[in-house]
Amino acid sequence: MKSKIKPDKFHFLWIPVLFLLPLLAGCSSGTPETPANFSSGHAKNIAVETFPIEETVPPLPDTFSQEEAFVQMLLFLQEGFRQHKIQNTYTVYFNGIETMNDDRFSCKMLLEDKSGSDAGFCWLEHLTFTYDEETGWYTFKGEYEPVLTQDIFYAYDNIDDAGELLDGSVHEAELSINTDLQTSIRYFADPGPTSATTYFYSPGNHFAGDIKSCIYTYEDVRLDTSITILYPYINTSDTELENLLNEKIHEAFFYGYYDEECLNPEKEMCVSIKRIHKVTRKDEQFLSVLIYEFNSYRFANHPNDWYRGITLSLETGKVLTFRDVVGEDCTVEQLLNSGAFHCMWTWECASDEEQLQSIKDSYLESSLDDFNDMFYLTGDSLGLITHEGRYYTCIEAKFADLGLDEWITAPQEDK
User: Fold this and answer.
1) How many whole angstroms separate alpha carbon 349 and alpha carbon 355?
2) In angstroms, how far is CA 71 from the centroid of its own chain?
3) Is the pLDDT of residue 202 over 80?
4) What is the pTM of this model?
């Protein structure tokens, strides 16, 4: 099975202080057994009140069986297909239901794609659940459901690669969004994905009036995913310019981890991602923002820090490149050898001098383009975002000390 390599993890350097995480509740329903683990006989129904008056509670079966549990699991999987708009048809191979130590049951299954562009790919799924003998209802947890992300990094290339799981199969069935399973839902489950964007002015924000804050949230309790992105929104009297500026800001904050990909929240699983920002410069000409992320993946060895920067001309809507700031004739080596930079923080008890020397060793041969999204401006300084291994730091130098005095007061046309 392919493994999806997430970015290295880095210690966070400043703590997110403002998040809005709206959680929406939802439920559904279901019913199982493994030999000697599920009771036999009749179960008393006490769940009538959970149904609308005009509906009738379906009768409970005379005996419980693993087959009944498999049908409820199929219903639960189908609900996930509908929530995540999974259009393909799958053959589902169930392994036997196992008893866990805390009144829970566990079942692994293999989903073989029988249609679509990924036909032949196989997905390992893992569900856990509890069972109420009195009501005959299940409570499901989607402990591991990569098929809902459709991220093939989590998939087997073909069924032969999943032979051991297939050998353990005790039941199989076809499943798609439209499969008629001819039975009633008898389970409760965590809600699927929800997303929202909220706009507000920060109390005491001295930029209020032309800049406000936005919070984007994406929650999927079923896939254990929580994403929060706090980003600025620019207001101007020029609608076209305003749209351009905010489009560039949105692109910068919704970045992906590889090449130029965008963040796809619906493809994330078992992760908490928080992105916030610090406005480092805001005047009539420029908006410069330092973007910070803290994330924690369930299967990672440690959390991760991630930094980015974006600087915009508020007069043209252009995203400034590093060359726009330091000029075509400058080099990274010249900047780092200027002696003007100092570290905003150091790692592993290193002194400022030691940290700077280590940064020089890592970046002297870098090109100006390598810093296009790794720099920021302040009122009087240039900042660079650097990292060694999984340790990030920012280094800053005064414009005057770099011979860039014009960046303090010069009008846009002179830059």
Assistant:
1) 9
2) 31
3) no
4) 0.79
